User: What shape does this take?
Amino acid sequence: MENVQKDKPLKGFGTACIHSGHVPDPNYAHLTPIYASSTYVFDTAEQGMNRFSGKEKGYIYSRWGNPSFTEAENKIAALETFGIKDESGNPLEAKAILHASGMAALTTLFISSLKQGDKVLTHASLYGGTDELLQKIFPSLGIETVIMDMHDPGQVEDTLKKDPSIRLMYLETPANPTLRCVDLEANIHLAKKYHILSAVDNTFASPYLQQPFRYGADYVFHSTTKFLNGHGTAVGGVLIGRDIKKMNENIIKIHRLLGGNSNPFDAYLLSNGIKTLEVRMERHCSNAMKVADFLEKHPAISKVNYPGLSSHPDHAIAQKQMKHPGSMMSFELKDGLEAGKKFIDKLKICVRAVSLGTCDTLVSHPASMTHYGVPKAQREKAGITDGLIRMSVGIENVEDLLEDLEQALE
Ligand SMILES: *Cc1c(COP(=O)(O)O)cnc(C)c1O
Assistant: This one.
């Protein structure tokens, strides 16, 4: 029993969060134990040879794979493909590879998809680390990035038509920290039309809210540090691909050689965190809608960026491709940076920290924290002003959050 979904399609996403990916333990442990073992034993030399050649399935060495990783990988693959059919009408299958961090998974994605002379097409206001990786590291390997507004399919098509060296379309939606969204269906359609790869950073949405494979994306990426883990207990990343043969051959080889493998303890924390993804996301999103409404009406606030508000420029895109508009938002105080700092310091329940997707509400200041490395002019063009405050709304009781915000805004 490799994957519950293969045996019998489950009706509910929440059930898949709990049961998919689990393999009964030979010692009857309820949960998959933490396989804290760097290497695996062969009964005979021949068995060792057969495992290396792939003739026999089995673990070899933990940089190459570990049962604690496998459980999390199969769970995430099941959730990203949940309820989706492939071209021939069968349940879509995908392969996930767990990594030490989101950035390690991105490195595998970019190195495996691009070679010298190739370009990435993407939009402004990406995760700060992704932006720096593309702009500061890859140019020295001869890989350039084209950044454009991807809201107009006509312009995207013109760019793809004119520049055949673009080999990968990279989308992050909703994007950090302005929560701008891009149309997955329209853009992935163009990637396919021009025979280039497409990858989506689905970290802010989670597979419960949005499934890029529905629109034919080649790769989905997550920083599992965020909503998938859900409790802020471990850094991790995952790359999921729909071309299983390519994932099992080319991509896994690059991943193993780059060495950004996960570790059994973090993988165990991740598998257990994912079990409550559906219930957490429901609460995250209902709290966020109430917090966004409260902030938008508050006289001290000049602007709220939340895709669930009809005032957000991408409200319609979010409504089209997301189950709920998520729990991430950002806002500006009328009196700018100084007022923002005072507000942050007065918070009693909301926690002052970067990162997101944890049970508790986290508040940060992008210009001086997550986007410190992005040049000011580029930052401001993407709406990341000095006064912008980012909030990851948690799953506390919303009355307590609203009271905390109210007293801090006084
Ligand atoms: C956190 C994050 C990353 C990077 O992931 P790490 O786990 O910190 O390496 C990438 N994209 C988004 C949207 C993120 O929030």
Observations:
- Residues 101-103, 127, 129-130, 172, 176, 201, 203-204, 223, 225-226, 235, 237 surround pyridoxal-5'-phosphate (CB under 6 Å).
